[in-house]
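Exercise: predict the fold of this chain.
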Amino acid sequence: MSNAYPSAPSAYEFPLLIKQLLNRAKTVSLDQEIIYADKKRLTYAELFTRINRLANVLEDLNLDAGDVVAVMDWDSHRYLESYFAVPMSQYILQTVNVRLSPEKVLYTINHAKPKVLMLNSEFAELVKNYQFENSSIQHIIWLDDNDMSVEGVFGDNQGRVVGEYEALLDSADSDFDFPDFDENTIATTFYTSGTTGDPKGVFFSHRQLVLHSLAEAASFGMLPNKQGVSYGDVYMPMTPMFHVHAWGFPFTATMIGLKQVYPGRYAPDTLLDLIINEKVSITHCVPTILQMVLKEAQDRDTSFNGLKMIIGGSRLTEGLAKAALAQGIEVYTGYGMSETAPLISLTDFSINEPKMSEEKDIARRCMTGKPILMVDAQVWGENNQSVATGKEHTGELVLRAPWLTQSYLKNDDAGVELWQQGYMHTQDIAYIRPDGYIKITDRLKDVIKSGGEWISSLEIETILSLHPSVADVSVIGIRDPQWGERPLALVVLKPDCQETSSDDIKAIADQAVSKGIIPKYGVPSEFKFVDELPKTSVGKHDKKLMREMYGNQTGV
């Protein structure tokens, strides 16, 4: 017997649909700007009209609810429009990771089976020989910034091209009545860039994305002005819109009604120009992109004037954080995964916290952070029980939050492995401090076991990154006849520091041993200088490839 209080007959139940994210901005932000690189400027009022027009274009294609619409584009106003028009029309938006290998890109398209492909002309070569006759794709919408004609690109499949995006929108009706439907309807899907096996598809419902947007806005709204988000901010992503919804920020920024800047393809000069000219005040990226824009600013002898930047995807090292702060970037850490939509934790700042040393402040900015609102984060030991707090109590980080993917697309077995005993298993090794800070010490697959002792590759990387000559560093385990495994440090030196020796780098690890920060067996047995470190499609260190390249050699 239900004890729910009855609603008034005409009460609106307010399903948590993506269209509800637009409610406030439709009232208060109509004149606010959205900019696409140096190519287009529009207002929110125009954005809402264009979302309606795109919905009408899609409706004319006679799609069914639940059909997939795939997008291959750089970060643009078009992508933002698809973030809303596609799921609000009861279709599923597939954000295609164009940085995967061509074979993997086509795998994700064949696996998700989209009916419509919104295709930037720059990717025409990738798909022009695609076997469309054996594909689910019935319609191609041509996206173009370079006056590139679609004529002749698709040969016999030319008839699948519906038209060019802007022309289609211009001829479409500007009104569309987006319906209410079940908030648990799937809204988006995309594929993880895992370094093993085929990419896995994650998916998110309207309800999940609305709750993630609300929690993201609220959690950043709790931070002081120098780190948080406020109504006067100017937002620009430096994480691709195909990767975990650009960390959810386009949804959140549109809900708030911020000025938004979309940079297209990431080039350091373009990114810096937009940051300066459009007065971008908040962004997010992986460490690789941060290094790229820092170098561009150094070459121009300019600084970033307090730009707020959240780093995720890979570990923010103390060395890189120090360099960013020195150039005027308020850098700090956010943590999440493709499977978590993604935000789980943030560096915590308080307006009345006691003054701390530069060393402690930098260490705090590089921590995994404290769980954001509504997140249940625990560390489980080998018996799948929550362990106590403190550095001596490490285990696997497991999660609950209302926006976590519930499984993998068409891969139930992997979903069962992801969810065990009601918690999402991250495969990250971590501990939680008594004050709630999470510290990830390694990935399950990346931890190094030497002489029966565990060595955290991330901890060693952090220490080595503090050497002033080190531009990038990764630590992997290599076979050792005596100890089983020993750590190998792969080091990229800064351009003006090529005379630095391995003994110079080793000295900073030896200092950490003398201070009791790491054990003696944590010092790498070998240092190898390389020109660059292999990266995944989203800029993470590809340790699987590094182990294939170097891991079978015997340590010295």
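Check your answer against the key: The first helix runs from residue 23 to 28.
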